[in-house]
């Protein structure tokens, strides 16, 4: 380990990191120094034979590189324009419409052309190999050391759900089976509870037997009014108790109350509107996040929208599914950074693409950060891969990292299966070497070959409120959607104001809020008087403004407390009681219902992790809902993990007083 670290230092390898930290090469080395060159483990389905079997196309059906998928969706990367040229942005004169796309008069976002990766790439000593059916499976069943891996070994979810009309046939079989009989059949039980997640369908027994949450894919969190209205109609069908939606911390939407009988039609209609749910759950790449103010930000460094679209097309191969990366050891998050504010939270993403410029050619590309994540057992900032990748090779870079993770990642306890655990096991240098092997040409330039485009920034801007865009005469409105909760009628109302005042576009943020862009300044006063804008005000209290929450016990089987209602109630009460210094725009309070920290508690200024415990009351020990309280999280260019400052604090007055004390001591709050 010492020798490896000395070798890297002697070579002068730069350890560039947007957070100002350097990576460590002290991870144990698992691989031998002399490596067998990578090759396809299952030679019967090599890239050449797969292409031949499909008539030479090598497209989505067999996982090859050929023209079918890539030419259809990506075009030629050799003539790729820059990201800004792939987006037609409304102007003040056209903000009420006029730009035609398949969605009507909306902003047109096209995927940035990419050089196709080799979808069949692997290595001789990989733990995973390609099957004759085109899926990728563990070769050694002994490495499947958790129930989910064993379920994937028994029947590949993507193959089951997407091949030969499998999804419609499967849902028909499940809905025709009495629900009480489904759980007497082990395979059907695993399909309804696990495999359907590859289609974005999550069975939620707390909502009732046969009720599902549907997770979408919304690249860069951008959607349009037509899509909003349709989704509002979907949840409205299921009534106030069941039908609702959540803005998530992945800049995405989740629809609730869905029945399996309705799912095929809903998914088909969403696809016709340009939305897929494919591979949005379980061990897949989640929604690709970007700057929520991409293309309209006066301080923008990089317009992330076209790249997020391109990476999403790669992840799902359009609506065909991408079996090469549908059996990862664990979930995987990717973001593209658009400004120095780092609204995307790159430090907690598995891959973060950070804008940079080649020192040689001046072309745009990215420095690369890897391995960031939060969990119940470990929280780790992303570290630099010491790499620069050209724009046109971004998908190939992601594929190289993802397949390395697929082939060598830990598949043991679920708390130890994220990408950083794989990097630890392989050793940093070996991991980077393997990623470089899998790049086109087998080369991955060093970070020192490019210069970051991000200026230094001590504190990020606030998106909520009314702000001037880079386009003359236009503004965006950042609307606060407390805890990301949307009721029946809300999305239609948002769609209506987007059409009436803007360009028909609605955007989401990782902080669970909504942006309406492209509003002419002269229309802003009327916009602010709209009822939905009064409900989701751009000018919330300091605490409500920074509120983030997971789903909580209302729907989630793992949550130990109700998060959304408790979070909002506490924030509203303290906003009413306290005054903050004039320059305080928000204090970020992040709530998670359990140690899995889906509410990202460790990045909050104040974090809450739900727990339950027993206390003595009237000579009896009774169950109490409470939280472990954290403080000190930071985001932007100098992130920090919030630390536990108190444990087992009961919900209610005691928690309120403790949080009030923190706000008064650390944030200058005073009683009104």
What does this structure look like?
- The protein is of the alpha+beta class and 672 residues long.
- The protein contains 21 helices and 28 strands.
- It has a five-stranded antiparallel beta sheet. Strands 9-20-21-18-17 form a five-stranded antiparallel beta sheet.
- Helix 9 runs antiparallel to helix 16 (490-501), helix 13 (394-408) packs across helix 15 and helix 14 crosses helix 15.
- Residues 1-86 and 93-105 have low confidence and may be disordered.
Q: Brief overview, please?
A:
The chain is of the alpha+beta class. The protein is 27% helix and 19% strand. Mean pLDDT is 85; it is low at 1-86 and 93-105.
Strand residue percentage: 15-25%
Helix content: 25-40%
Specify the biggest β-sheet.
5 strands, antiparallel
Model regions low in confidence, pLDDT < 50 over at least 5 residues: 1-86, 93-105
User: Distance between termini?
Assistant: 58 Å
**Oligomeric grouping of the chains:** single chain
Which shape, going by the Cα principal axes? globular
| Rg, nearest Å | 24 Å
Let me know the number of strands.
28
- Number of discrete helical segments: 21
The averaged pLDDT comes out at 85
Strand adjacency order, main sheet? 7-8-11-10-19
Structural class: alpha+beta
Summarize the SSE layout with pairings.
Elements: H1 2-10, H2 47-53, H3 67-73, E1 87-88, E2 100-101, E3 104-105, E4 108-109, E5 128-130, E6 136-138, H4 147-154, H5 157-162, H6 166-175, H7 179-182, H8 186-193, E7 201-203, E8 211-215, E9 222-224, H9 225-236, H10 239-242, E10 244-247, E11 253-259, H11 263-272, H12 305-316, E12 334-336, E13 351-358, E14 364-370, E15 383-390, H13 394-408, H14 419-426, H15 428-437, E16 450-452, E17 465-468, E18 474-479, E19 485-486, H16 490-501, E20 505-508, E21 514-520, H17 524-528, H18 531-535, H19 542-545, E22 547-549, H20 564-577, E23 578-579, E24 589-592, E25 606-617, E26 620-631, E27 643-650, H21 653-666, E28 670-671
Parallel strand pairs: 12-13, 22-24, 24-25
Antiparallel strand pairs: 1-4, 2-3, 5-6, 7-8, 8-11, 9-20, 10-11, 10-19, 13-14, 13-16, 14-15, 17-18, 18-21, 20-21, 23-28, 25-26, 26-27
Helix pairs in contact: 9-16, 13-15, 14-15
């Amino acid at each position: 380990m010492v020798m490896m670290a000395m070798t890297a230092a002697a070579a002068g390898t730069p350890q560039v990191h947007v957070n100002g930290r350097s990576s460590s090469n002290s991870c144990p080395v698992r691989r031998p120094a002399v490596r067998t060159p990578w090759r396809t483990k299952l030679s019967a389905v090599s890239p050449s034979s797969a292409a031949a079997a499909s008539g030479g196309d090598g497209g989505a059906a067999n996982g090859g590189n050929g023209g079918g998928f890539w030419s259809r969706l990506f075009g030629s990367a050799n003539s790729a324009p820059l990201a800004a040229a792939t987006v037609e942005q409304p102007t003040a004169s056209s903000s009420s419409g006029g730009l035609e796309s398949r969605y009507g008069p909306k902003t047109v976002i096209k995927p940035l052309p990419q050089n196709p990766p080799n979808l069949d790439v692997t290595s001789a000593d990989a733990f995973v190999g390609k099957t004759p059916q085109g899926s990728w499976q563990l070769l050694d069943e002994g490495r499947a050391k958790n129930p989910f891996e064993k379920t994937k070994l028994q029947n590949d979810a993507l193959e089951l759900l997407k091949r030969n009309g499998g999804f419609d046939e499967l849902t028909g079989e499940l809905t025709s089976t009495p629900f009480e009989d489904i759980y007497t059949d082990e395979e059907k039980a695993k399909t309804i509870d696990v495999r359907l997640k590859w289609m974005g369908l999550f069975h939620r027994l707390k909502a009732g037997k046969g009720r599902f949450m549907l997770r979408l894919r919304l690249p860069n969190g951008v959607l349009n009014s037509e899509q909003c209205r349709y989704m509002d109609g979907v949840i409205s069908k299921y009534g106030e108790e069941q039908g609702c939606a959540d803005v998530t911390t992945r800049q995405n939407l989740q629809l609730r109350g869905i029945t399996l009988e309705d799912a095929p039609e809903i998914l088909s209609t969403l696809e016709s509107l340009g939305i897929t749910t494919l591979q949005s759950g379980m061990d897949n790449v989640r929604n690709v996040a970007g700057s929520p103010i991409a293309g309209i930000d006066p301080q923008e460094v990089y317009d992330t929208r076209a790249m997020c679209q391109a990476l999403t097309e790669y992840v799902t191969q359009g609506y065909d599914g991408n079996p090469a990366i549908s059996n990862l050891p664990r979930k995987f998050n990717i973001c593209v950074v658009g400004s120095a504010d780092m609204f995307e939270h790159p430090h907690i993403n598995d891959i973060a693409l950070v804008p940079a410029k080649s020192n040689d050619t001046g072309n745009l590309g990215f420095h690369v950060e890897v391995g960031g994540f939060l969990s119940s057992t470990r929280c780790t900032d992303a570290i630099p891969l010491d790499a620069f990748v050209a724009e046109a090779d971004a998908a190939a870079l992601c594929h190289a990292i993802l397949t390395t993770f697929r082939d060598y990642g830990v598949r043991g306890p679920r708390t130890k299966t994220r990408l950083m655990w794989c990097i630890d096991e392989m050793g940093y240098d070996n991991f980077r070497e393997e990623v470089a092997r899998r790049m086109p040409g087998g080369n991955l330039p060093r970070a020192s070959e490019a210069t970051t485009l991000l200026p230094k920034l001590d504190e990020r801007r606030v998106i909520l409120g009314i702000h001037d865009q880079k386009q003359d005469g236009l503004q965006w409105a950042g609307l606060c959607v407390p805890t990301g909760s949307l009721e029946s009628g809300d999305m239609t109302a948002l769609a209506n104001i987007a059409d009436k005042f803007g360009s028909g576009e609605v955007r989401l943020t990782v902080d669970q809020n909504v942006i309406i862009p492209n509003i002419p300044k002269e229309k802003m006063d009327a916009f602010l008087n709209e009822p939905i804008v009064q409900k989701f005000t751009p000018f919330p209290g300091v605490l409500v403004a920074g509120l983030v929450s997971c789903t909580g016990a209302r729907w989630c089987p793992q949550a130990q407390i109700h998060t959304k209602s408790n979070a909002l109630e506490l924030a509203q009460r303290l906003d009413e009681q306290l005054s903050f210094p004039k320059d305080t725009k928000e204090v970020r309070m992040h709530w998670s219902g359990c140690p899995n920290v889906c509410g990202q508690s460790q990045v909050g200024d104040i974090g809450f992790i739900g727990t339950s415990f027993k206390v003595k009351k009237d000579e009896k020990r009774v169950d109490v809902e409470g939280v472990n309280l954290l403080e000190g999280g930071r985001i932007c260019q100098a992130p920090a993990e919030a630390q536990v400052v108190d444990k087992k604090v009961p919900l209610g007055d005691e928690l309120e007083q403790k949080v009030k004390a923190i706000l008064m001591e650390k944030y200058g709050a005073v009683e009104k």
